[in-house]
Amino acid sequence: MAYEKELETALLAVQRATLLTKSVFTSHSKGTLTKSDASPVTIGDFGAQALIIASIKHVFPEDEVVGEEDADDLRANDSLRDLVWDLVTAAKLEDSAAEDKIGGPIKSKDALLEALDSGRSAGGRKGRIWALDPIDGTKGFLRGGQYAVCLALMVDGVPTVGVLGCPNLPVDDKAPLDSSIGADADSGEGKGVLFSAVKGEGASSRPLGKAGLQEAQKISMKAVTDISEATFCESVEAGHSSHGDQASIASKLGITKASVRMDSQAKYASIARGAGDLYLRLPVSKSYEEKIWDHAAGVVIVQEAGGEVTDAHGKPLDFGIGRTLKENKGVVAAPKAVFPKVIEVVKEVLGAKQ
Ligand code: AMP
Ligand code: MG
């Protein structure tokens, strides 16, 4: 299999970092996160980014990383740095062989800062660059709703390996989606999934564990024959995509079911395994540039599960320009067979607004 080592590294790195985010959420909700006045999102972001970059650099020292965070805040704030240090040293996989594969614990506070700062790549169209969102869906994370730890390897600007850690999605790929999914408080029994894909090799899911990797199963999008029966996913935040335009598109497609709103790339994961069907992200602002780390992993997972993803004009997403998708506006994802119909209606709705 191609990119086997990259995939294993990414899966273990995301699994370990996801455990850290869960421990931050738990201590936050129990009120034990008192040492610093930084938000749990900030602390979880720094901790998860440092752990993942340290894992990647251990196995692939030459690779670049585009990460959302850097170490500036931690350099300026000792108590924040100490808090993140305590978290990253506590987040260990309960399997020493798995832990060794991603380099074991971060060695020192300097190594922690160095790892964080290694996320400053400018991106681009050449070579191997990882795109990392340590906590995507920060609002969902705070609510105990959906969030995702997102990591993708881009090769010459093309998302090639993608992993999403979704601690609050049901393990069962067939569990139906309903509108409660985005609001559900806390990860309970039967929750926590790692999704992954390698270009040309298909997409999979497996339960998120605490040790080594659990067994994976193939996932694929649902074969939608009657599009009016489709379930469509969108952001919770009205500031991230146009709920109004999305409602018009759904209505023109004959969809009567309410949308399923959830934060983060859990939307890509949910349609990839056929729990939902469409993901609509119509722009609210003309100037906003989507970030590559908000999409790279989800896109390759949906593509490998039998889907097509473009921007709202039907243009392929260009991950090779830099840290943002500046040549694209919005995102539309759907099973290949119905994609032409969906994008036609998206264009109609956008056209009517001109
Ligand atoms: P979601 O959870 O799908 O709503 O997406 C969360 C991501 O939306 C965050 O990681 C932000 O990077 C991104 N974001 C922030 N502002 C905007 C905006 N105006 N339009 C689209 N995405 C945004
Ligand atoms: Mg994000």
TrEMBL record:
User: Which of the seven top EC classes does this enzyme belong to?
Assistant: hydrolase
Q: Which UniProt keywords apply?
A: Hydrolase, Magnesium, Metal-binding
The record ties this protein, via CDD domains, to: PAP_phosphatase
Catalyzed chemical reaction(s) = adenosine 3',5'-bisphosphate + H2O = AMP + phosphate; adenosine 2',5'-bisphosphate + H2O = AMP + phosphate; 3'-phosphoadenylyl sulfate + H2O = adenosine 5'-phosphosulfate + phosphate
> InterPro entries, per this entry?
DPNP, Inositol_monoP_metal-BS, Inositol_monoP_superfamily, Inositol_monophosphatase-like, Inositol_monophosphatase_CS
Q: Does the keyword Metal-binding belong to this entry?
A: yes
A Gene Ontology annotation in the biological process aspect, one of them, is: inositol phosphate metabolic process
Cofactor entry: Mg(2+)
GO MF entry, a single one: metal ion binding
Q: What is this protein called?
A: 3'(2'),5'-bisphosphate nucleotidase
Taxonomic lineage per UniProt?
Eukaryota, Fungi, Dikarya, Ascomycota, Pezizomycotina
